[in-house]
Amino acid sequence: WRPCPELSPALRLPCRCNVVPFAATGQLGAVAMDCDRVVFHGDAPQLPYGAPIVAYTQRHSGQQVLPAQTFGQLKLTIEELDLSYNLIRRIPEKAFDGLKDSLNELRLANNLLGDNLNPIFSTAELHVLKNLRLLDLSGNKIKLIEEGLLKGCMDLKEFYIDRNSLTSVPTNSLNGPSALRHLSLRQNQIGSLLADSFNAQRQLEIIDLRHNVIRSIDSLAFKGLQKIREIKLAGNRISHLNSDVFEKLQSLQKLDLSENFFGQFPTVALAAVPGLKHLNLSSNMLQQLDYTHMQVVRSLESLDISRNTITTITPGTFREMGALKYLDLSLNSLRTIEDDALEGLDSLQTLIIKDNNILLVPGSALGRLPQLTSLQLDYNRVAALSAEILGSLQAGDITTLSLSRNVIRELPPGSFQMFSSLHTLDLSGNSLAVINADTFAGLESTLMALKLSQNRLTGLGGAPWVLPELRSLDLSGNTLTELPSTIFEELENVQSLNLSGNHLTPLTGALFKPLDRLQVIDLSGCNIRQISGDLLAGLQDLKHIYLNDNQLQELQDGSFVNLWNISSIDLSNNRIGSIRSGAFVNVMKLQKLDLHGNQLSAFKGEYFNTGTGIEELDISDNQLSYLFPSSFRIHPRLREIRAANNKFSFFPAELISTLQYLEHIDLSHNQLKTIEELDFARLPRLRVLLVANNQLDMVSEMAFHNSTQLQILDLAHNNLDRIGERTFEGLVRLEQLNLEGNRLSELSDGVFERTKLQMLENINLAHNRFEYAPLNALQRQFFFVSSVDLSHNKIKELPGDDSIMVNIKRIDLSFNPLSSKAVHNVLNEPKTVRELSLAGTGIENLELLETPFLQFLNLSHNKLKNVKPEVFQRVTLLETLDLSSNQLESLEDLSMAWPQLQVLQSLDVSNNSFEIVSQSNFGKLEMLRSLRLSHLPQCTRIEKNAFKQLPNLVSLEAYDLPLLGYLDLQGILELLPGLEVLDIEVKDSSIGSEQIQPLKHPRLKSLGIRGDRLKSISSGTLAGLKSNDLSVQLRNTSLNALPPALLFPVPRSSHLSLNVEGSKITVLVPQFLNALEDRRASLQLQGLASNPIVCDCNARALRRWLPSSGMPDVTCASPAYLLNRKLIEVGDDELTCDARRMTSSTSRPTASVPHLLKTSSQLVTRSSSTTEEPLIIWSLEPTQPPSLKKMKTKAPLMKAQSPIISNDDT
């Protein structure tokens, strides 16, 4: 791809072009054009008549009109047309007449074709496209499809209608094509598959129904599909299948049933498809797997049953699975694999048993797999590895062996000598301290990739590693301090070397010399203080260099010399204060240079001895106050300049005036005072200009003149009090104009005249000084303005009859002192608004809403005491309703409105005054996915069945309920198996897995447990959580300790975030710290600093752990003589459990209590009245004297504890 004018002078457009073959002849000579994010005067580009353009894409450019008609008139033979991610609402008449013979791919995804009151999407314009093979209408808010839509599209093979609002398969709308092959209906709202759902298209080969809400499938749903090869049903709500649902689908080969709710293997349904080759049942609730399940799917070649709760595989399970080549058993609860558990898998090539808490490599079971080539045992607890242990494997055929994230401490010489075909070995994330050349004896002629990252390596042995076939070596995240000078001598084929995150002493010049085929080198985070010119000399194949996050202070002459193929250099986050002239010599192919986060006060062209091909330059977060005319001129291909967070007070036009390819400039967070005439003018490709958070008080009227592609302009948080009438003259489309946080009180009526600016789409005027909405100025953009943010101004009045208000699609007027007449004019006069925010505008009551298109309504922070059901009579498309922070006294009236709001998906009624949440309050809200009920100071009762009628609920928040005596947590959760996010207050003093039952909530990925009554949590509470990204919050509880084994049941492969903010934790015990250390690469602990840490002898292990934790601010709450000291700065001798020392230092041992109480009550963020506060405060554990005894008894145990480095969980 290259700029179009370089391909042909006739294509004088700021697009990219490529030469492609003609479909008919296969000969080169046709042109594909990529005009993504490009805008033109008029609806279509000026292209030469009859040009051989066969593919045209123009996404993300605000197109409201299809340019297809223009293309047809120009006799362009366009075969592929992609106008996804635009604002097209309708397809005009005769749109495709000129392209009817040539067009075979039409992509109109992510437009607005279904965004209107008529629920049926209809057009006759596709009928002429007799050669169309692919049609994509995804993401268009389509609810129903007209029956004859595809009439005439005889040749259509692929039809995508993903991410719409379809509630059933549009069976009758699929008539027309003679042989549709691929139908995709992903991410709709389809709840069931009825009989004959695909009757119109019996030639279908692939049906994709992933991520709908399908619960039931009729026995005849797939009837008549003689050629079906693949059915994808992942991410639905299916718990069982009828026996005949797949009957007569003899050609079915692939079936995806993952992420559903199967508690048992669907044996009976699968018995009908004996020819099935690929089955995915991962992420279900299967508890067992045995021979009776497998005998109905004997012809399987791949089986994925990962992320279930299978505890054992009985011998003989796979005895008739001779065809199986791929088996994934990851994230179950296997612990061990019996010797004959895998008997019969004579063709198995890939076996994945990640994250099963397996303690030993199951050698004898694996030895019965004669064809095994890939074995993955990552995230288990294997501690030992040797030639003896691996001896029973049929090692000669294995090409990939992965044992990352186990607890292997040592590898004897020759551990892998029998693996004569091994090309990939992954041992990252173990506890290896030393590796020698002889560790890999026997792998000399085969090993191509070796991963040893995140171990505890301190040395690599003295002898060179003899691995001449090695292409990739990863040693990152170890504790290497020096590398033997000959270590790489026999690694001449290595192309990628990662040494990041070690503490390397100065590197010798000859170290990398043998690696003359090296393409990528990562030396980031290695404490490197300087690099000499000879370090990388001679590495002529080098493409990418990472030296970020080191201690470099200067780049000397010839730091990067003769790197003829270099593409990117990352020097960010060092301390570079100076760069010598000629630091970069002969780096002509360099495309990306990153210098952000240094201490540069200058950036000159003289650093380079010749012009470069740099396209992306990042010099942000430095000390730059000015630049030289030569700074950028030597880089004529610059596309992006990032220079935020510097000290620029001016940025003269001559710096960038010659950069014809420049698209993106970021100068935010500087000290610019003005933007002068022509500063950013005549830049034909400039699309994004960010100058927020400066000190601008003036923008010249001609500043952007003729920069026709400028579409995103951010001027937020400056001191602008006026915008000149001609400021935007010559611009085609402003997609985003951000003027938030300035001093504007008015906009001149002509500032957005169509003769000056063709299209203004989204404007942010929040946090200014407007007393009247600048509607006259916006009126000029009646057809284009879609979003206006006027929140946090001083607007009181709004006219009722203003036509611009009628047409804006997103309006935010929150936190203005609106009069009741103004509110009436917004809500009760007809409008086409889709999203409306009126938070904090003093609304006391609501009348009938005249906003039939409304999908999002925010009325939070008002004074509503009651909402009558008839208010919502005409807003039947509403999807999100926020009524939080009002004064609602009851949900009874509101609940009468639910039958009208059939598509409501998100509801927030937090921070209101109602007392009861009853069974009838949330009826008829079948589509509801998110419900918030937090901060309810008057609520005394939540009925167990209150959420029973919310079958699709995904997220529930209910906390900060001070008057609520009891909450039947277990009863509530049993009714909501599909929950993904739960944040709830517990009223019991202890909690365990029986209340939350994660095993019955397989999709739970965020779990919040709150409540000051909660004093203990059982070790098994989190057992059953399986999500890849997990968030666990134990906030504002009275927990004073966390059980050592709390994290043990959580999958080790999960990225876990643990938040303990506002609880009463006094110390983290060494065993718990060991568990944190075990997950050091995938765990984030937050909020510990807000707990009352007791700094006695029990805190020593915590103090040793803190430096590497990223939490230096943890302070002592007691004893008194250490109050508010940072624990990290307290010495071991001061951390004592000697009662005399603790009391002699202060006459009042309880002096620390007020602080402790103050801290805890501050963090209990609730909106209850102050009279409740003492209850909260005195629910603390007894203070000092009683706990001293406890501490004292623990002291000897602590002394015996070794520093937390080892990993003793095997």
Automatic annotation (TrEMBL):
**Family matches, as PROSITE patterns:** LRR (PS51450)
Q: Where is this region: Disordered?
A: 1187-1210
For this UniProt record, give its keywords in alphabetical order, as a comma-separated list.
Leucine-rich repeat, Repeat, Signal
Superkingdom as given in the UniProt entry: Eukaryota
Gene Ontology CC entries for this record: cell periphery
Transmembrane annotation, as ranges: none
SMART domains, from UniProt? LRR_BAC (SM00364), LRR_SD22 (SM00365), LRR_TYP (SM00369), LRRCT (SM00082)
Which SUPFAM superfamilies does the entry mention? Answer: L domain-like, Outer arm dynein light chain 1
Q: Which residues form the LRRCT domain?
A: 1091-1138
Q: Which InterPro entries match?
A: Cys-rich_flank_reg_C (IPR000483), Leu-rich_rpt (IPR001611), Leu-rich_rpt_typical-subtyp (IPR003591), LRR_dom_sf (IPR032675), SLRP (IPR050333)
Protein name according to UniProt? RT10543p
Which species? Answer: Drosophila melanogaster
For this protein's source organism, the top of the classification is: Eukaryota, Metazoa, Ecdysozoa, Arthropoda, Hexapoda
